[in-house]
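Submission sheet (multi-component)
Chains listed below:
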Amino acid sequence: MKHAFRCVTNNPLLAVQDFPNLEYHDTDVLGLLRIVYQEVIGGVKLLTHPLTGSIRPDITPYKTVLLSATASRVDFESVRLMERALQYTEDLYRLRDIPLYKQCSDEAKADFQLIDLSIIERALEVAQWS
Amino acid sequence: MKEIVHYLNQFYGQIGGEEFADQTPIIRDGPIGPGVALQSLLAEEAQITSTIICGDNYFADHQDEALEKILALIDEKRPEMLIAGPGFNAGRYGLACGTVCDAVKSKFSIPVLTALYPENPGAEMFKKTVYIVKAPISAAGMKKVMPAMGKLALKLLRGEEIGFPEEEGYIPQGFRINVHTEKNGAERGVDMLIKKLRGEPFTTELPMPVFDRVVPAPALKDLAHAKIALITSGGIVPQGNPDHIESANASLYGIYDITGLDNLTADKYMTVHGGYDPVYATEDPNRVLPLDAMRAIEREGGFGELYNHYYATVGNTTAVSNAKRYAEEIAQDMLRNQIQAAILTST
Amino acid sequence: MELIDKTKEETMKLTLNKFHVKDIRFAEQSSFANGILYIDKKDLAAYLMEDSNIQSVDFDIARPGESVRIVPIKDVIQPRYKKSGSGQIFPGYVGDVETVGNGETNVLEECCVATSGKIVAFQEGIIDMCGLGAEFNSFSKMNILVPLIQPIDGIDKHTHEATVRIAGLKTAAYMAKLSLALAPDEVETFEHESILEMGAKYPDLPKVVYVDMVQCQGLMHDTYIYGLNVKGILSTLIGPLEVLDGAIVSGNCAAPGHKNATIHHENNPIIMDLLRRHGKELCFVGVLLSNESAMLKEKMRAAYYTSNLSALLGVDGMIISEEGGGNPETDLMLNCRFHEQRGIKTVLVTDEYCGRDGASQGLADVTPEADAVITNGNGNQFVVLPKMDRVIGDIETARVITGGNANSIGADGTLSVEIAAIMGSCCEMGYERMTTRLR
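Outcome: structure written.
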């Protein structure tokens, strides 16, 4: 059975890997979460948690969020999770004058991309959607 | 001997009651009222050399001028510390105590201290920057709050390290600090579980935020025949403010007759809300309480009937517990008058 | 078929033979005598290089009180080796896939292995052996052997991670094996009956289960049970004594401050405390593993299934630990809610990120049922760590690890970081002695 979903991301590696249903945005993690929030308050449902993995949103430059393919009635849990995730991320961004994700080397960037991809691949694998 | 200036309102400063709430800032020598009791607790170490008295209304309605004058008075005296109140749960006084303490701390870099009931809007606003001793709800608690004030005042004067709220008696400022413990987290966790299972009291190390979940009422089924009322926390009241609703921390709400009125006019209605620029609401009060729009829709048959009174209060720093009480009473009044829905406007 | 006469063993019994390690030294021959561990580098290297993915390996030593900083660190493992009983330590890796948790296991105390070497460019984790940094974990009081593993060229990250993980486990086993012929300094024995037996034996004691949440979200984010990656598993039950024999191993490399290293699993402090109070203040029914996935539906399934198992066991209370921060708080709160809704009382063990001043909301998710929470500290606390005379590993990586930044390394060699960068500083199993208080 083909499962429909939208893949909202700022990780360029996903395009290179030919990831399906991709919506790429050139922004940072906070920017991406804000885009996802706009979708969610419009009735789109979160499929993955907005703060996947254990690398903090102010440390990794990359994030991918899977969303429902269509919008319907606003899902309260998705809205609530997004609001908390946004607050959590905004607070962490404020820890330093320049958040850590802006200071990482190209090598580190490549590794962060790889980990984000691995997380999303694993998410689909475990959901038995891949 | 270290010198302290004490800030009081017109009542505690023994000028007079509510009728003197417009008192401009003045200064008197030595301690007055609660200052005398405080002085005795400071004993040999410090002296309240002057008391600044300012009316609560004057401070609320002319904050910039009041502060300018008060800071000037303090500049002349150059004390080592400023103490304000205790303000207990008095809203205007509490805001004044907090504002004065915060401003003095910023300008003169001297220790400051006040004492307020935790729900006082002044406490909410200033607890992060000012040490606020936890005071009982009213002046009946004066004897209870004084010792904590005295002790903390001395510690601040001496530059001693201030401990945690439980030990020192101040309202938690909201900063979570790491401390080392004797038992590891696992043992503390199992201890807590055993207590919880036995029904014994325990204290969580990480309180959840307060959840104020209100279940929404079911949707209105028949809008065409519904009786709807208008409420506002935007402070729209009849000219002259007959019920004297305060511009901040309102202590009451009003119910005003709008029978036969098509809209609110500037000559008959005004705003008393102190938290927004009043120009546009003064020009046209319908901008905050949309009577004109409601009448238009009523005429078109968009809903059944507009209730012939509206409810008004001021939401500016109004204590949550008070707002809750007004809402409960208003809801009861609405039920008595068979109102089925309400439109609440704020700012 | 013949009927085999078997006595049903209902009580699992594990004895930990503890040896206090005073020092580690390199020597011509590996041995353990009078508290001193002698390591023959060549012999250990040969053992590790049975894995053809390793090109070369070197070793270093860090001792308590020395002016030494180890960075980056992948995993920390306590040396253990089974003297008797079924199976061998770290089943699925050192031991075969065979039941562990009974017999005798030798344990080297005040000693650990810390694997180092870059797998990813942001590899994480610091251990300082003296100064302010040493106050934030127990590892600074241990004698540490650091294998520095160089993989073959062209290795992919997944294989590299597995290679270093297994090498660390093997090193730990190698060290503890040296104690087999010796008499221990102290002995602690744990007994754990079958669930049905303990139900009959302790009718009046409250029945408690421990829910161990385990990470499994992808590369550098995995946990293994008897060698099986816990991704996709339904919540399951495991005996506490099995965990003490290394049945759970960490592949988790992200967020050093609050990830659970293998040493945390081996010494799971919640399991240890529950075992010590078992039969006295409570009846410790067992350990439930509940995994932390990225998909919300998986989180719901895991939490529901864990609460189903708890209800099936008929427990009165549960204590739950988290691994990591951010999305795992949702797993934590879901588990709390579903258990409380079924009348099972809960205690949550976690940590916080509440900002430099401690004023931010510390958790990514909350639920009103969470009225009993233990916190193991605010990971955002900033500290300036003194310059160390020696760095084992690569100090440049401090610039990019959690809590560090480009300005982290001062001209005077001091390191300005959040405590989240210090290995295990806020361990959410409650391994360390720190909490947060509101001022």
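Remark: Chain A has one domain: 5-126.
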